[in-house]
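Progress note, sequence design subtask.
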């Protein structure tokens, strides 16, 4: 199968609006666009409701595997009025806060620095009953993006990424074949380390809890250097990898931890992650064109040229898609997903009578989804040993060895597969690739926006507002964690990690 470089057209982006379309009137609202990592999505609604009154939430339209329309998770809008207590924002100010998660972290970095128009929620194409809306605009790397007469996408005001902006480098950590930011483009950012986020080793339930997974073994499976489980625990089964697309911050974190990219260059010691094109060629079946109605087909039940079960890599846009990929592998169910460049893939897990042994790329913001009805069927695993980790009890299975991805191990510096969530906005004015002059966030015209964003960043890094009492995040030892009005280290030490990379993902973890 030959994967095309660009989508053949943009007809889908400009398809006619649905019969139940209506406009949501946002006249007089301060519109704020946050784009990037899915990691903060779990606390996004809580944090937004801490800052806005009378919130009404809208989401994008999506379809499930049966073709039924559901509410998506890639695009969300929170419409309300500002609460008192946000410095610089008058209480009662109408605010429309948008979050795009499609594609992950790099969408909170590159298009933010360049002030590019990107695909966005279309508030003129909504069903007011279900609160589902269509989409508008064209992403960079997709045909007609630079035509202002065709691209009516929105421009992000600030971004969020699992790691700092300088980590998004070619060839593995940029999206849709787009060039990495230049030093000058990175220079427009004000960026802030917000909180510490763990990443983990996961496997479907078909992989026994007694199977030992070292970081070298796990990394080698991600890199296509181990393609069959017989090299891990003696079982003749193909390795299935449910990973993220290039440009995802989660994927970037795995590339750094297991492959040392971009901390060492691609030509000097760094190891490339396996992509969909590294799958066993025999797994590509059918003649699809990559569209939603005629996706590329992948059959993971076939044998490779050596007569062994196929090695298959599936690239997914969001962490929810990775979880659904793992679910489908465990339940040998048909699976359809959108990868990079808006290409669609149908993975025929349903052609096997037994579950597949799959591993995945997930941060610990997926705690609690292991037994979900449509996203479960997998578990987090101990590193450099055996054992299933149960986040609700923060314990590992009986007889477990190695290091567990527990919050206590993060606080104690024992779990070093952790990076620091970054938020950033533009400090300089930018003219984008369609000719829009976009003012700096320091421009007086953006005073309300900047005040709201500054408070949002502060609360996202605090020990109070973002679920730090759970197993997902800890605050990093910075000013946000120690502000007396938010909760300081002396009163909430269990919420602030003592170990950090200091905002530099290529630095080792060290005591602060």
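Output:
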């Amino acid at each position: 199968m030959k994967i095309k470089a660009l989508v053949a057209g943009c007809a889908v982006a400009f398809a006619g609006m649905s019969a139940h379309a209506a406009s949501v009137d946002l006249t007089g609202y301060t519109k704020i666009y946050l784009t990037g990592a899915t990691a903060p999505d779990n606390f996004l609604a809580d944090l937004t409701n801490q800052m806005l009154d009378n919130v009404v939430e809208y989401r994008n339209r999506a379809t499930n595997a049966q073709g039924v329309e559901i509410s998506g998770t890639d695009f969300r809008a929170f419409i309300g009025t500002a609460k008192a207590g946000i410095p610089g924002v008058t209480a009662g100010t109408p605010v429309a806060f948008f979050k795009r998660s499609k594609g992950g972290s790099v969408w909170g970095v590159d298009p933010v620095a360049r002030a590019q128009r990107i695909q966005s929620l279309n508030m003129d194409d909504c069903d007011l009953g279900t609160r589902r809306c269509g989409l508008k605009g064209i992403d960079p790397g997709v045909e007609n993006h630079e035509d202002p007469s065709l691209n009516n996408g929105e421009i992000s005001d600030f971004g969020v990424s699992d790691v700092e902006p300088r980590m998004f480098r070619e060839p593995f950590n940029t999206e849709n074949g787009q060039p990495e930011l230049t030093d000058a483009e990175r220079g427009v950012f004000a960026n802030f380390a917000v909180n510490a986020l763990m990443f983990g080793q996961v496997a479907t339930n078909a992989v026994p809890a007694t199977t030992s997974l070292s970081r070298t073994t796990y990394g080698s499976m991600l890199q296509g250097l181990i393609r069959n489980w017989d090299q891990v625990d003696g079982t003749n089964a193909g390795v299935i990898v449910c990973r993220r697309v290039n440009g995802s911050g989660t994927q970037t974190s795995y590339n750094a931890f297991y492959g040392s990219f971009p901390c060492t260059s691609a030509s000097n010691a760094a190891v490339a992650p396996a992509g969909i094109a590294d799958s066993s060629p025999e797994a590509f079946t059918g003649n699809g064109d990559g569209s939603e109605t005629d996706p590329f087909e992948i059959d993971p039940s076939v044998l490779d040229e050596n007569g062994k079960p196929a090695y298959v890599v599936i690239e997914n846009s969001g962490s929810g898609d990775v979880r659904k990929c793992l679910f489908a592998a465990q339940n040998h169910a048909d699976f359809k997903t959108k990868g990079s460049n808006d290409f669609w893939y149908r993975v025929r897990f349903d052609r096997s009578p037994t579950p597949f042994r799959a591993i995945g790329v997930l941060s610990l913001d997926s705690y609690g989804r292991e037994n979900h009805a449509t996203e479960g069927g997998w578990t987090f695993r101990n590193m450099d040993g055996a054992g299933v980790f149960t986040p609700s009890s923060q314990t590992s299975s009986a007889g477990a060895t190695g290091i567990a991805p527990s919050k206590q191990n993060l606080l104690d510096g024992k779990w070093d597969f952790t990076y620091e969530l970054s938020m950033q906005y533009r400090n300089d004015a930018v003219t984008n690739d369609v000719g829009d002059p976009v003012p700096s966030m320091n421009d007086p015209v953006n005073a309300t926006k900047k005040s709201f964003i500054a408070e949002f960043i502060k609360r996202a890094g605090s020990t109070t507002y973002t679920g730090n009492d759970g197993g997902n995040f800890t605050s990093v030892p910075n000013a946000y964690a120690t502000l007396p009005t938010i909760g300081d280290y002396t009163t909430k030490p269990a919420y602030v990690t003592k170990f950090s990379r200091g905002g530099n993902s290529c630095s080792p973890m060290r005591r602060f």
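Residues 28-195+419-473 form one domain. Work on this subtask will continue into the next period as scheduled.
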